[in-house]
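Q: I'm writing up a methods section and want to include an example of the input and output format. Could you take the sequence below and give the corresponding predicted structure tokens, formatted cleanly so I can copy it straight into the document?
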Amino acid sequence: MEAAVETPEGARPPAHARPALRHWALVAAGCGTVIAGALAASPAAGSTGPAGPSGPVVRAVGDTDAPDPAKIRLPLDCGPFPVKLALRVSASFDGRPFTVAAAHCAADNGTPPDGAYLLGAGPDGRPVIQGVLVRPEEGLTVTEIRLRSDGTITGRAKGYSTPDIPHCCPDLTVTLTWTRHAGQWTRTETKTPTATT
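A: Here is the clean output for your methods example:
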């Protein structure tokens, strides 16, 4: 899994989702209660699928055997706030352990955007970023990452349909798929309105 994962050029985030991460940290207090309730109702999840009979073999591995996100500086500009790991899923792909990690700035309240990264082991055994699955500038909150037995990575995130949507209340569910072809990763996504009650 050595190829970098890049966001398609045509998938530009809405204007409200592109400010610097420090901006998110400073305005976080505005909608913390709403987001806390939403996350409690829909917690992040991660899982691995069983290995298939042919093709690349993906197996679940223990966190101690896979690259540890805590041992690498993730490319998040959080100003005075620490980086918080939102979710982590580890697996072995054809015998090589890797980790998918989603993280954001640990602001006191609010919903700072996530970055999601594919981590592998470097020559010295320390974790290295082998691909960027989700850029923080996209303004997405990653809620689920799954690793399928065929080597495909799938995920779900919350996002915004227009710049007019309040930062506290994402109105889109984004279904994400990363598929590897000839050593390169391709991302596809589907956006659907979030059901309201």
